[in-house]
Amino acid sequence: MAGDIRQAYLEAADAAVELLREPEVAERWDEPSALDRLSVGGLAAHLATQIVRVSEALEEPGEDPIDLLENYRRSPWVLQDPDHESNANVRKRSEEAADRGPAEVAARAADLLGRQRAALAAEPRDRVVRLPWSGWSLRLDDFLLTRMMELVVHSDDLAVSVGVDTPEPPPSVAGPVVDLLSRLAVQRHGVTAVVRALSRKERAPATISAF
Protein backbone atom coordinates (compact mmCIF):
# COMPACT_ATOMS: atom_id res chain seq x y z
CA MET A 1 0.00 0.00 0.00
CA ALA A 2 2.84 2.43 0.82
CA GLY A 3 4.29 2.12 -2.65
CA ASP A 4 0.85 2.53 -4.19
CA ILE A 5 0.11 5.78 -2.36
CA ARG A 6 3.55 7.20 -3.03
CA GLN A 7 3.33 6.42 -6.73
CA ALA A 8 -0.19 7.83 -6.88
CA TYR A 9 0.99 11.05 -5.26
CA LEU A 10 3.73 11.37 -7.88
CA GLU A 11 1.16 10.86 -10.65
CA ALA A 12 -1.10 13.56 -9.19
CA ALA A 13 1.83 15.93 -8.79
CA ASP A 14 3.01 15.27 -12.36
CA ALA A 15 -0.43 16.24 -13.66
CA ALA A 16 -0.41 19.39 -11.54
CA VAL A 17 2.99 20.47 -12.88
CA GLU A 18 1.78 19.92 -16.44
CA LEU A 19 -1.22 22.12 -15.70
CA LEU A 20 1.00 24.83 -14.18
CA ARG A 21 2.93 24.90 -17.46
CA GLU A 22 -0.17 25.46 -19.61
CA PRO A 23 0.18 28.77 -21.50
CA GLU A 24 -3.33 29.79 -20.43
CA VAL A 25 -2.16 29.86 -16.82
CA ALA A 26 0.61 32.35 -17.56
CA GLU A 27 -1.67 34.41 -19.81
CA ARG A 28 -4.27 34.86 -17.06
CA TRP A 29 -1.88 35.00 -14.10
CA ASP A 30 -3.14 38.34 -12.79
CA GLU A 31 -6.83 37.71 -13.48
CA PRO A 32 -9.37 36.56 -10.85
CA SER A 33 -9.62 32.80 -10.43
CA ALA A 34 -12.68 30.65 -9.86
CA LEU A 35 -12.02 31.00 -6.12
CA ASP A 36 -13.18 34.16 -4.41
CA ARG A 37 -10.46 36.71 -3.65
CA LEU A 38 -7.69 34.68 -5.24
CA SER A 39 -5.99 35.43 -8.54
CA VAL A 40 -5.09 32.76 -11.06
CA GLY A 41 -1.48 33.23 -10.04
CA GLY A 42 -2.34 32.88 -6.37
CA LEU A 43 -4.30 29.71 -7.07
CA ALA A 44 -1.48 28.29 -9.18
CA ALA A 45 1.02 29.06 -6.43
CA HIS A 46 -1.26 27.37 -3.88
CA LEU A 47 -1.43 24.31 -6.13
CA ALA A 48 2.36 24.26 -6.37
CA THR A 49 2.63 24.65 -2.60
CA GLN A 50 1.18 21.17 -2.15
CA ILE A 51 4.36 19.81 -3.72
CA VAL A 52 6.53 22.18 -1.70
CA ARG A 53 4.90 20.94 1.50
CA VAL A 54 5.99 17.38 0.81
CA SER A 55 9.62 18.42 0.58
CA GLU A 56 9.27 20.40 3.80
CA ALA A 57 7.66 17.49 5.63
CA LEU A 58 10.33 15.03 4.51
CA GLU A 59 12.89 17.14 6.36
CA GLU A 60 11.02 16.78 9.66
CA PRO A 61 11.21 13.53 11.67
CA GLY A 62 7.89 12.99 13.38
CA GLU A 63 6.63 11.18 16.44
CA ASP A 64 3.27 9.93 17.75
CA PRO A 65 1.29 10.39 14.52
CA ILE A 66 -2.35 11.33 14.76
CA ASP A 67 -5.17 9.77 12.75
CA LEU A 68 -5.80 11.08 9.24
CA LEU A 69 -9.30 12.36 10.02
CA GLU A 70 -8.09 13.85 13.30
CA ASN A 71 -5.75 15.95 11.19
CA TYR A 72 -8.80 17.59 9.62
CA ARG A 73 -10.66 17.89 12.90
CA ARG A 74 -7.73 19.88 14.26
CA SER A 75 -7.25 22.10 11.21
CA PRO A 76 -8.94 25.48 11.78
CA TRP A 77 -9.65 26.17 8.10
CA VAL A 78 -11.81 23.10 7.49
CA LEU A 79 -15.14 24.36 8.83
CA GLN A 80 -14.46 28.09 8.67
CA ASP A 81 -15.77 30.62 6.16
CA PRO A 82 -13.46 32.35 3.66
CA ASP A 83 -13.04 35.36 5.95
CA HIS A 84 -11.53 33.33 8.78
CA GLU A 85 -7.94 34.24 9.60
CA SER A 86 -6.65 30.81 8.58
CA ASN A 87 -8.13 31.10 5.08
CA ALA A 88 -7.13 34.74 4.71
CA ASN A 89 -3.55 33.79 5.55
CA VAL A 90 -3.57 31.08 2.89
CA ARG A 91 -4.68 33.61 0.28
CA LYS A 92 -2.04 36.10 1.41
CA ARG A 93 0.79 33.57 1.25
CA SER A 94 -0.42 32.30 -2.12
CA GLU A 95 -0.47 35.77 -3.65
CA GLU A 96 3.00 36.45 -2.28
CA ALA A 97 4.27 33.20 -3.80
CA ALA A 98 2.67 34.16 -7.12
CA ASP A 99 4.93 37.22 -7.28
CA ARG A 100 7.67 34.86 -8.48
CA GLY A 101 5.80 34.56 -11.76
CA PRO A 102 4.37 31.56 -13.63
CA ALA A 103 7.66 30.20 -14.98
CA GLU A 104 9.42 30.15 -11.61
CA VAL A 105 6.42 28.73 -9.75
CA ALA A 106 6.15 25.84 -12.22
CA ALA A 107 9.91 25.27 -12.38
CA ARG A 108 10.29 25.12 -8.61
CA ALA A 109 7.46 22.61 -8.30
CA ALA A 110 8.95 20.47 -11.06
CA ASP A 111 12.42 20.56 -9.47
CA LEU A 112 11.15 19.55 -6.04
CA LEU A 113 9.01 16.81 -7.54
CA GLY A 114 12.03 15.39 -9.34
CA ARG A 115 13.92 15.16 -6.06
CA GLN A 116 10.95 13.60 -4.30
CA ARG A 117 10.90 10.57 -6.62
CA ALA A 118 14.08 9.14 -5.16
CA ALA A 119 13.39 10.42 -1.65
CA LEU A 120 9.97 8.78 -1.37
CA ALA A 121 11.24 5.47 -2.72
CA ALA A 122 13.91 5.42 -0.01
CA GLU A 123 11.60 6.18 2.91
CA PRO A 124 10.59 3.26 5.17
CA ARG A 125 6.99 2.10 5.11
CA ASP A 126 6.39 3.32 8.64
CA ARG A 127 7.92 6.77 8.16
CA VAL A 128 6.28 9.51 10.21
CA VAL A 129 6.67 13.19 9.33
CA ARG A 130 6.07 16.28 11.42
CA LEU A 131 4.08 19.07 9.80
CA PRO A 132 5.92 22.21 10.90
CA TRP A 133 3.01 24.47 9.94
CA SER A 134 0.55 22.59 12.18
CA GLY A 135 2.69 21.21 14.98
CA TRP A 136 1.61 17.56 14.80
CA SER A 137 2.74 14.44 12.97
CA LEU A 138 1.19 12.13 10.39
CA ARG A 139 2.26 8.89 8.80
CA LEU A 140 3.99 9.80 5.57
CA ASP A 141 1.47 7.95 3.43
CA ASP A 142 -1.45 9.66 5.17
CA PHE A 143 0.20 13.01 4.57
CA LEU A 144 0.74 12.19 0.89
CA LEU A 145 -2.95 11.35 0.61
CA THR A 146 -3.84 14.80 1.95
CA ARG A 147 -1.60 16.35 -0.70
CA MET A 148 -3.13 14.18 -3.43
CA MET A 149 -6.57 15.43 -2.47
CA GLU A 150 -5.40 19.04 -2.54
CA LEU A 151 -3.72 18.52 -5.91
CA VAL A 152 -6.83 17.02 -7.48
CA VAL A 153 -9.21 19.63 -6.05
CA HIS A 154 -7.06 22.64 -6.88
CA SER A 155 -6.15 21.32 -10.32
CA ASP A 156 -9.86 21.43 -11.08
CA ASP A 157 -10.08 24.96 -9.65
CA LEU A 158 -7.17 26.13 -11.80
CA ALA A 159 -8.34 24.42 -14.98
CA VAL A 160 -11.79 25.99 -14.63
CA SER A 161 -10.19 29.36 -13.93
CA VAL A 162 -8.23 29.42 -17.19
CA GLY A 163 -10.68 27.56 -19.44
CA VAL A 164 -8.81 24.30 -20.03
CA ASP A 165 -9.93 20.73 -19.45
CA THR A 166 -9.56 19.48 -15.91
CA PRO A 167 -6.92 16.74 -15.72
CA GLU A 168 -8.66 13.38 -15.31
CA PRO A 169 -6.98 11.57 -12.43
CA PRO A 170 -6.23 7.89 -13.01
CA PRO A 171 -7.96 5.31 -10.80
CA SER A 172 -4.85 5.05 -8.63
CA VAL A 173 -5.35 8.70 -7.69
CA ALA A 174 -9.12 9.08 -7.96
CA GLY A 175 -9.94 6.12 -5.71
CA PRO A 176 -8.03 7.25 -2.60
CA VAL A 177 -9.05 10.89 -3.10
CA VAL A 178 -12.76 10.14 -3.46
CA ASP A 179 -12.55 7.81 -0.47
CA LEU A 180 -10.96 10.55 1.66
CA LEU A 181 -13.49 13.16 0.55
CA SER A 182 -16.31 10.71 1.30
CA ARG A 183 -15.00 10.10 4.82
CA LEU A 184 -14.67 13.83 5.40
CA ALA A 185 -18.21 14.37 4.11
CA VAL A 186 -19.51 11.74 6.54
CA GLN A 187 -17.54 13.36 9.35
CA ARG A 188 -19.16 16.71 8.56
CA HIS A 189 -22.70 15.74 7.54
CA GLY A 190 -23.28 12.23 8.89
CA VAL A 191 -23.79 8.89 7.17
CA THR A 192 -27.48 9.37 6.43
CA ALA A 193 -26.97 12.64 4.58
CA VAL A 194 -24.20 11.19 2.44
CA VAL A 195 -26.16 8.01 1.64
CA ARG A 196 -29.20 10.06 0.65
CA ALA A 197 -27.13 12.38 -1.54
CA LEU A 198 -25.63 9.41 -3.36
CA SER A 199 -28.77 7.32 -3.70
CA ARG A 200 -32.02 9.28 -3.28
CA LYS A 201 -32.42 12.52 -5.20
CA GLU A 202 -35.85 13.09 -3.63
CA ARG A 203 -34.30 13.18 -0.14
CA ALA A 204 -30.84 14.46 -0.97
CA PRO A 205 -29.56 17.32 1.20
CA ALA A 206 -28.52 20.60 -0.39
CA THR A 207 -24.85 19.71 -0.03
CA ILE A 208 -22.51 17.06 1.30
CA SER A 209 -19.39 19.08 0.57
CA ALA A 210 -16.44 17.88 2.61
CA PHE A 211 -15.35 21.48 3.21
UniProtKB/TrEMBL annotation:
This is Mycothiol maleylpyruvate isomerase N-terminal domain-containing protein. It holds the Pfam family MDMPI_N. It comes from the Bacteria. Residues 11-159 form the Mycothiol-dependent maleylpyruvate isomerase metal-binding domain. It comes from Thermostaphylospora chromogena. Residues 81-102 have a biased composition (Basic and acidic residues). InterPro entries: DinB/YfiT-like, MDMPI_metal-binding. Keywords: Isomerase, Pyruvate. GO terms for molecular function: isomerase activity; metal ion binding. Residues 79-102 are annotated as: Disordered.
